[in-house]
Specification:
Elements (H helix, E strand, L loop, with lengths): L7 H8 L7 H11 L3 H8 L12 H13 L6
Length: 75
């Protein structure tokens, strides 16, 4: 859904702080999480040199799907 392809293992390495969180990654994560990239950049301390583009419609749809999936249970 974003220009950057990351494996689950790479996401884990980023989350644990063993890989640098870049402006591109902040923008991509923000799109998939459905939050503003500037807000995520502020929270993570990553400086964005320019205003990020709006997420694609596909990324926005994926963010909604991921948000709604949090309610799923094993049942």
């Amino acid at each position: 859904m974003t220009p950057t392809y990351l494996s689950a293992a790479t996401c884990g390495v980023i989350g644990s702080g063993r890989k640098e969180l870049t402006p591109r990654l902040v923008t991509d994560f923000a799109a998939l999480l459905g939050i503003d990239a500037c807000e995520l950049a502020t929270l993570t301390g990553v400086f964005l040199r320019e205003a990020p583009p709006s997420p694609s419609p596909e990324a926005a749809d994926a963010a909604v799907l991921l948000w709604e999936a949090r309610r799923l249970s094993t049942a």
